[in-house]
Amino acid sequence: MVIAIIRSYPFVSYPLESILLFVGMAFLFVRYITQTHLNIDHHQVARTQPLIYTHLFLVMGLNLFTVGIEMLANQHHANLGFIFFIVGILIYYTSILLTTRYNKPLFRYDKEEISRYLLLLAAGICLLWLSKFSLLLLSAVLVVFTWTMMWLGAIFRRRAQQKQEKPD
After folding, report:
1. How far is the C-alpha of 116 from the C-alpha of 151, rounded, in Å?
2. How far apart are CA 9 and CA 7, in angstroms?
3. What is the pLDDT of residue 12?
4. For residue 40, what are the β-bridge partners?
5. Mean pLDDT of the 67-89 span
6. Where would a tag sit more exposed on the chain, N or C end, judged by fewer CB atoms within 10 A?
7. Does residue 64 have a pLDDT over 70?
């Protein structure tokens, strides 16, 4: 992913866009690590096949995201690239949400948290769609969106930990 961004958007030609695309991609990675490393109960006895399939879709989403970013740099393929970009993000975040069923009991999502997540995902996709005519704006919206998704996960973790610490 990083190589695709560097190759398609060299810093000399696209100084702000290349930095913003890299930061947006980095926030995707942080959200993945928070969910899969910190939230999932790695010692539970459960069927792992759905988790494996979810990760296959997650990788597919990242690949579409990367190919989309590369295609955005080419005027002849920018429209298809944008569709790949959006679909990749949608698949990625949907896959992240599907892994939450394996979370530690403390970090299991309830309906309210799922609704919040899906609402933010829909709002982010809409904002990305509206900013598709400017690479700089699209890159900036990507950073804000991926940071907000990362922040939502961090806030959820903090609240869950605070609830556990409070005596009833």
Report:
1. 12
2. 6
3. 72
4. 103
5. 93
6. C
7. yes
